[in-house]
């Protein structure tokens, strides 16, 4: 966390209205002082605690591609910013078969007040100031879950709820790159789309929720490659919606 805030913003001082704005809800595995999750510390580098590779992609989009970025600085195990306030998983007690004992009986209202609400209030204020043409939410997904033997073949996927305008353009453009692209896979945006439902769909702003398979971006080279591809494809999509 920076100055006690559950987010950081990069490249936002001189925003040109009408461009892209990037959001990374699950970019951190940080656990603030005073919170004990009660899990093996090795799990904090696992996908249950952080979207592996996303922070590097988001920072490159800001610093090398001149895009404003809003990045979470608290682990999803502390408070999941990509959940609604009234969802039980906003402070998860289990994740991919792992019990999170420190969250059982946790003070959920405190976590919402300290982390969830400031994160989303700051994002809303940034959107109002930036007036973006399109929002881009960047996530990553594990090639396989511990609770399932099913392999996930998609290198990238686009998630959406009701507004699929931008997602369908992006799916086409990623496929033109020779990639295996998921259409509302491995998760459906019709069930899990909280941040974009709140900040994009509710405001009529086109958006792309991009899920990149973690083995694509678990190195600096992979993160740089995907930042270049995202900047190009998302910029092209924004011109079409």
Automatic annotation (TrEMBL):
Pfam families xrefs: FGase
Domain of life assignment: Bacteria
Identification of the protein by name: N-formylglutamate amidohydrolase
């Amino acid at each position: 966390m920076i100055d006690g805030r559950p987010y950081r913003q990069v490249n936002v001082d001189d925003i040109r209205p009408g461009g892209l704005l990037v959001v990374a809800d699950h970019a951190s595995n940080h656990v603030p002082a005073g919170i004990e999750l009660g899990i093996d510390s090795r799990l904090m580098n696992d996908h249950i605690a952080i979207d592996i590779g996303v922070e590097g992609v988001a920072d490159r989009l800001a610093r090398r591609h001149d895009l404003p970025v809003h990045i979470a600085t608290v682990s999803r195990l502390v408070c999941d910013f990509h959940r609604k306030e009234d969802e039980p998983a906003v402070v998860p007690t289990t994740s991919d078969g792992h019990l999170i004992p420190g969250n059982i009986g946790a003070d959920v209202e405190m976590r919402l007040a300290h982390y969830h609400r400031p994160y989303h209030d700051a994002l809303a204020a940034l959107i109002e100031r930036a007036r973006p043409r399109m929002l881009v939410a960047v996530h990553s997904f594990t090639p396989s879950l511990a609770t399932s033997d099913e392999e996930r073949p998609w290198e990238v996927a686009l998630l959406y709820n009701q507004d699929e305008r931008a997602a369908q353009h992006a799916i086409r453009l990623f496929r033109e790159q020779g990639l295996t692209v998921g259409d509302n896979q491995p998760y459906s945006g019709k069930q899990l789309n909280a941040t974009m439902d709140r900040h994009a769909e509710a405001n009529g702003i086109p958006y792309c929720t991009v899920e990149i398979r973690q083995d694509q971006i678990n190195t600096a080279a992979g993160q740089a490659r995907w930042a270049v591809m995202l900047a190009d494809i998302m910029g092209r999509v924004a011109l079409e919606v």
